[in-house]
Design a protein that fits this description.
By secondary structure, the chain is an all-alpha fold. It folds into two domains: 91 residues, Rna Polymerase Sigma Factor, Chain: A, CATH 1.10.1740; 83 residues, Arc Repressor Mutant, subunit A, CATH 1.10.10. Helix content is 73%, strand content 0%. The chain has nine helices and no strands. The longest helix has 23 residues.
Length: 196
């Protein structure tokens, strides 16, 4: 908790641009690091800076929703979401001519198996206890780090890791009963993130 952050947010709510400048000075490096972690080397430095500006603009527009006790996590969440959205936009903007790359057409059986796999994972995750489900969704679908999840949920990093581990075991057992015996791969394939 930072009393200074609480005071700066209050000043931003009153329209104090100098307070916003101080928040930017304090958190710009962190926001850029979050964005770089999501984007990797896919985009130029200028894109990272532009996204960071978007993050602070979004904060400025929604300062009334910010919690001074969790400002770092709040800014990190905005940064992560903006970066993920930029990646989605980037992938949508990539258009390949059909003759550039030759891939076999997906089979109907493969598409059906993938839909079944996703349905099994969805059902298993939705059946989890609420906190475990939230941790799983934040980690595997929103690509959030254990540290960020711990900060957002007021838990220790170790507690988050244990819940992820227990949850993976439960999901794997559940998927092995209803799937093809490849539960861990099913969990990873259904999410956006490939890391654990």
């Amino acid at each position: 908790m930072s009393l200074l952050d609480v005071l700066e947010i209050r000043a931003c709510r009153r329209g104090d641009e100098d307070a916003l400048g101080r928040i930017i000075d304090k958190y710009a490096a962190y926001v850029c690091a979050v964005i770089r972690r999501v984007l990797g080397n896919r985009m130029a430095h200028e894109d990272v800076e532009e996204l960071a500006s978007d993050v602070f603009y979004a904060f400025w527009q929604n300062a009334d929703k910010a919690d001074g006790q969790k400002l770092r996590a709040y800014l990190g969440s905005i940064a992560r979401n903006k970066a993920i959205n930029r990646l989605r936009q980037y992938h949508e903007d990539l258009h390949f001519e059909d003759d550039w790359i030759s891939l076999p057409a997906p089979s109907l059986e493969g598409e059906q198996a993938e839909r079944e796999q996703r349905a099994l994972v969805r059902k298993a995750v939705l059946g989890m206890e609420e906190t475990d489900r939230r941790i799983f969704l934040l980690h595997y679908y929103d690509c959030r780090s254990v540290t960020d999840i711990a900060a957002e949920l007021d838990m220790s990093g170790e507690a988050v890791k244990k819940r992820l581990s227990r949850g993976r075991v439960k999901l794997q057992n559940q998927l092995n009963r209803g799937g093809d015996g490849n539960g861990e791969a099913d969990i990873r394939a259904a999410g956006q993130c490939a890391d654990s």
